[in-house]
User: Fold this.
Amino acid sequence: MKIAVIGAGAFGTALGGILAFNGYDIDYYDSKTTGERLSDVVQGCKYILLAIPSKAVPYVLPHLPNTIPLIVATKGILSSKTFQKFDDYMVLSGPGFADDIKAYKDTYLTVTDDRLKKLFQADYIHFDYTNDENGVLMCGSLKNVYAIWSGVLGLKRDSKKWLNYINDVSLEMKTILQANNANPDTVDLVCGIGDLKLTCGYPSRNYEFGDKFRQNNDYLPEKTVEGLSAIKKLLNNEILIPNNLSILSSILKTFSHDYFRKVANGSK
Assistant:
């Protein structure tokens, strides 16, 4: 059975490696590969695995067939409305670094469909389950936002301040999910609290950006920081944001539309 993996980066190849080991025929699509056509990669496949940066998703989705089951492993998407054209889609998310998966280290993932448990079965892969696709997507995006702020605050992993921050953030995330018709209990799964704990510290790129921004407010990101993309979406009201969120309010005040205009100009 053929599975098309859209995205040949670290995470896409890590997940593709599990599928290949389980006997599936894997065909990768990488937009940087000259002459490669997306239509050729997805032709004849039984599943499509989406593992590209979130900023590329709007450009790729229109070219994917909506009748083939879509596995969403991309983080940074705030709403399930993004995938409303697909007849069958499912989400795979959690606190797993690509290098850990490739090294066969224990990895914990949340899935929204039991088919994913079979596809990605391995001794070192552990699953929890929810049918709350919208909540899983929001958790995968919001945790990056809060990871940036953890770096801005200079919080040290497992310190009392860090633990209090994680607790306060999980409550805010639950409030956001509930306001957007998702299940707040999804935050308690590994896609929520588990991924939040992993991301709010090194070697997370989001935390690293926040830490460098704390030391130098003129610092500009050199690589893609998913949390910044998510902040832009929040500023553009892609989802409903309740008014009583003190941490998120501070984040949006600091990284405002004015900040992104300065970033676009290459200086602050």
In short: Residues 141-264 form a domain with the N-(1-d-carboxylethyl)-l-norvaline Dehydrogenase; domain 2 fold (CATH 1.10.1040.10). The mean pLDDT is 94. The chain has two domains: 2-129, 141-264. The longest strand covers residues 2-6.
